[in-house]
Amino acid sequence: MIGIDILGFGPFRLAHLVSDFTGTLACDGIPLEGVTEMIREISGHLAVHILTADTCGTARLEPEELPCTVHIWKS
User: Fold this and answer.
1) Which member of 30, 53, 57, 58 has the lowest number of beta carbons within 10 Å of its beta carbon?
2) How does pLDDT run across 3-62, given as a tens digit for each residue?
3) How far apart are CA 25 and CA 3, in angstroms?
4) pTM assigned to the model
5) Contact 45, 75 (CB under 8 A)
6) Taking the mean position of all CA atoms in its chain, how far away is CA 34?
7) Own/partner pairs for 39-48, CB < 8 Å, 24+ apart?
8) How open is the CA angle 33-50-27, to the nearest 5 degrees?
9) Cα gap 33→55, rounded to integer Å
C-alpha cells in the first residue's frame, strides 16, 4: 500500500494501480521504454492491473514476466 495526503481531501491509502495499455503504457502493442521496469518497481507496493481491449491483437505482454494482472476485455 501507498499512503498519500491530498490537500482538501485528506489521507488515502492506495492498494491497486489500474492502467490502460495501448496509448498509455504501450505503442503498437509494445510496452514503452522503461514501463516494464516501472511496473516491477511499483508492484512492490501496489497490485498492478493492466486493461486492454487488444482490438488489433497487438498487445504483446508476457504476464509471466511482469508482476501484474492483465485483463483483456472482449467486446
Assistant:
1) 57
2) 999 999 999 999 999 999 888 988 887 889 999 999 999 999 999 999 988 877 767 666
3) 24
4) 0.82
5) no
6) 13
7) 39/66, 39/67, 39/68, 40/66, 40/67, 42/17, 43/67, 43/68, 45/1, 45/2, 46/1, 46/2, 46/14, 46/15, 46/16, 46/17, 47/15, 47/16, 47/17, 48/16, 48/17, 48/19
8) 35
9) 22
Give me the long-range contacts of 35-43 (CB less than 8 A, separation at least 24): 36/65, 36/66, 39/66, 39/67, 39/68, 40/66, 40/67, 42/17, 43/67, 43/68
Copy the grid coordinates of residue 20.
Answer: 490502460
| Position 19, amino acid | S
What letter represents residue 50's amino acid?
I
Residue 5, all three cell numbers: 495526503
Please state, in angstroms and rounded to a whole number, the distance separating the CA atoms of residues 75 and 69: 19
